[in-house]
Amino acid sequence: MAMTEQDHAIVEKITRALPKMTELQKTKLLASAQTLVMIFDQSASKGEEEMPKPQSA
Predict the structure, then answer these.
(1) Which of 27, 28, 33 is nearest to 10 (CA)?
(2) I want to staple 25 with a disulfide (CB 3.0 to 4.6 A). Which of 3, 21, 41, 52 is the partner?
(3) Over its length of 57 residues, how does the chain's per-residue pLDDT go in tens digits?
(4) Is the sign of the CA dihedral 51, 16, 5, 1 positive or negative?
């Protein structure tokens, strides 16, 4: 799956914010990213039947 403009914008924001984040914030960000990867992996293994809807934070 190719990255969209929105994906690139999100990566850019995270890259700029990362040096200013506390260790706890970095840990929470990593946990969220790992959860997303697991969701996408599960969706891909199911043949992308139905993508989960993003939840607002």
Answers:
(1) 33
(2) 21
(3) 678 999 899 999 999 999 999 999 999 999 999 999 999 888 888 775 555 566 665
(4) negative
Give first-to-last CA distance, the chain, whole Å. Answer: 24
For 43-53, b/e burial (b = at least 16 CB within 10 A) is eeeeeeeeeee
User: Among all chains, which residue has been given the structure tokens 């960000």?
Assistant: 29
Local structure of residue 21 (DSSP, 8 states): -
What are the φ/ψ torsions at residue 22 (nearest 5 degrees)? -75, 165
Q: How far apart are CA 47 and CA 41, in angstroms?
A: 10
